[in-house]
Amino acid sequence: MGACYLAWATDEKIRDRAANGGFVTAVLVAALEKDLLDAVIVVKKEDVYEGIPTVTSDPETVVECAGSLHAAPINLTRFVVEFYKDERNKGKKIGLPAKPCDARGIIEQAKRQQLDINDVYLVGLNCGGTLHPLGLREAAAEIYGIDPDAVVKEEIKAGKLFLSLQSGEERECKMDELEERGYGRRDSCKMCTTKIPTMADLACGNWGVPKGEEATFVEVLTEKGEALFRNALENGYIEVKEAPEESLEVRERIKNAMVKRAEEWWQKLDVVRELTRDERLKFYVETLKLCIHCGACRIVCPVCACGDAAKCVSMHDERDDYVISMYNMIRLLHLMDSCIGCGQCEDVCPVDIPLTLIHRRFAERMQRKLNYTPGMSVEEKPPFYEAELRWHDIL
Amino acid sequence: MIKTICPGCSLGCGLYLEDGGERGLRVWHRKRAPVNAGKLCAFGMCLPQYYGRARMENTVDGKPVTQDEAVSEAAKRLKSIKPEELAFVSVGAATCEELSSLINLCKALGCKNLELGLNAAFKTLPESLHEFLEIGVPLASVERASKLVLFFMEPFSQHPLLARRILKAKKNGAKVFEVAFVGGERGIADETILLDAAALVNSASAEAAEELKKLRERKDVFENALIISEVNPYTDAVLLRELFAVCAECGAMPLLMKPFLTMSAALLQSALAPETKRGSSLLEVFEDERVKGLFLLETDPAGVLLLSERKIQERLSGLELLVEQGAFRTVASELATVTLASDMFFERRGLVVNAEGRVLRNEGTSTTGVEILEGIAGDITGARRSFEDVRNEALKALGLEAVPNEDAVPLRRKEEKVQVEPNELRSGATVAETTRVEDYLLLYRTTPAFWSGQFVKDFVEISVEAARSLKLFRGDKVEISNAEAVTLDFKISEHLPERLIVSEMKLAGVSERLLSPVRLRKKE
What we know:
The structure holds two protein chains of two kinds. By secondary structure, chain A is an alpha/beta fold. Chain A has three domains: 3-127 and 191-262, Aspartate Aminotransferase, domain 2, CATH 3.40.640; 131-184, Nuclear Transport Factor 2, Chain: A, CATH 3.10.450; 270-389. Chain A is built from 17 helices and eleven strands. In chain A, the strands form two sheets. Chain A has an eight-stranded mixed β-sheet with strand order 3-2-4-5-9-10-1-11, with helices on both faces. In chain A, strands 6-7-8 form a three-stranded antiparallel β-sheet. The mean pLDDT of chain A is 94. By secondary structure, chain B is an alpha/beta fold. Chain B folds into four domains: 1-52, Single Sheet (N-terminal domain of TfIIb); 54-118 and 262-397, Rossmann fold; 127-257, Dimethylsulfoxide Reductase, domain 2, CATH 3.40.228; 440-522, Beta Barrel (Barwin-like endoglucanases). Chain B is built from 23 helices and 23 strands. In chain B, helix 3 (67-79) packs across helix 19, helix 4 (96-108) runs parallel beside helix 19 (368-381) and helix 4 crosses helix 20 (387-397). Chain B is globular, with a radius of gyration of 22 Å. The termini of chain B are far apart. The A-B interface holds A 46, 49-50, 52, 72-74, 82, 85-86, 132-134, 137, 148-149, 286, 289-290, 292-296, 299-300, 318-321, 347-352 and B 1, 16, 20-21, 23, 26-27, 29-32, 34, 36-42, 44-45, 156-157, 160-161, 163-164, 167-168, 186-187, 405, 407, 457, 459, 489-494.
């Protein structure tokens, strides 16, 4: 475990605008202003339901983008990869606030030589999950009984989702209740057990922050994290105090409770578990035959780095009449060691194939067997990748 | 990143497009988009290639000119043609503002030939039913329907973003039926009413009328159902009338999808120039030799017509005047007297109406398209309107005071149910002779790729029996012929009736209709 602090921005404007004392925003602003970073990727808020990832070197823009945006379920990995595909950006240092699935995707891309992890500063954010924007709008109308357009702010605190209205009024509902009624977090988030981004450079969040304090609980995890933290502290962008033992315990307790709940969700959402072998095959055939081969799941996948040479594409022929196409068969195989369960594929599937569930069913067993969790460390090569290297060595 | 609308069909899926400079355009999913929740079909995913086509330039008689010169030349030459010899066509992806300006220009010239893709359907149905062509129902009501009928509609190919709504309806307990020549392809329908394509190849025949009686015998299927179908410039008039007759008899509601964004904006045509709805249909424009001058707005004739490029060019080269305004060069551009270059659809500022009746913003910044059209009209009438004026006129024509929220579906039909005497729609059939089908029938399955001619599946589907009888093996090719012949790869589909061939790609020269007799041979 890294050194842990309670920290907050010294700039009142940042504190007002951002969540939890504005530590994350202050660190990124400091890194830009003191030339530790060349650019930052942030999500520009259109409204409560929409955010657009933006690459910026302007500290003002970073401040404008402060604050949580749970209903913009974006994985930033592809944006980082695209940034480095531009030759002009090679060698540039970038930073970004990263949910665990963002950080894991970026680490997987680094393993596949799509970027140099030394150039990417991951300001990790604790994550209890994200919501689909249209689902949140529906929940606002159906559960909260309010006009979705009147919502100006959302916040998840102590297991509740708070919606603030233009009028200043605040409404709340327990996340468990929302989810029992079919709303709340995306399925992939409900099942996700990676709540604290220990694979990032810093892990930040409000778990463990004493009641009444506007601060961020920060764990410094790497040298890059240390550099970000020191830069902000030494240049007066943040104030800190050592995290008390009690804060550490609370944070751990919250994480454990969320992991436990995620495991319960997995038991509940894994509808295939109770099926017989024949029924399982039927389930996979029936769901995957809906695939229209648009390729969106591959394009958004944060761990796929195959590009135009992707075997799932080149070995797929629409004239074939397999009950499960080669595209899907290869993707299932390919992701068994690498799927991080982010759910982006399911988000973009035009025919709503439950891809998070399907990939997780295949990946979980394989990853357990191989004792490998993707996206946790750049040093750990994907097991199938190693196999490929050995095969080439033999040739 | 630009918030834009996919121009692939009338659903109007939302997405972001980012200009990556030398690395081209990139598609990003816009999960907030109420129509599609960020999801896109294969066409939407391929938009960078769609937008990568050769761009139009401003020219007069083939020579490059400035936009102003092209505009003033277009105005001068349009004025020189008699109004009754002119036709205006926009079947593609134009904004409501552009269409409003086009209608304005058309009226300024006193022309009544304006086609936004629905004229053939308008002319085949009584006026009281026109609103059912123009406006559908909110997509959310597809999910809530208890009974759905897919009327010659294969949603997974034709409108995949509708397919997910149908799947949700099924999950909610809806019964799904399909009326089709091919059944059970994805297993989405609980029951298929299979019609014989051979009987309907000449839909005006007595045999066809007999075949269609099968539908009347299944009132249980249609009663209070939501019937989903597609209307396009080639939709068979008899089948369209039968659909409405069934709706009227059974209290069913139609939801008509369209392959082009402009088609839902035919609402504007009804409001601003209703007299043009009886004007020439798309096919008539290209067949009628009385048309001497043609204005194409954002329309690729090779995309919207089932004619071969050669035939299209033959027809176009006979025109006295061809003015083409668009973002991309088309088969017509070489022959055009004046070409006017607009910006690509995603770059434009403007509104579109989707098949539901939702008004969506395309959030580019370019207003060049409107400026060109208003420039031409201004040269003719002396009055040139601003973009805001044009937008206000379009909104007013749609019955709106301001641009509505994208989450609302503000444009609704006045009538909930189809009210018409069913036999009125059925009269007029049984006049023509039966077409003898001794060989095969080619059925076009119209997808966004089909109409754009881009990223199409370059093979045909044939039946197991056809493959057996022709002794086809993997790697073989088939020849499909009619007036002309094409050689293609094939896929064997166990769902196809023996003598039906399905193509998602236009086979120009082989078939000029959605269903037509052809010969099928093994290519030796």
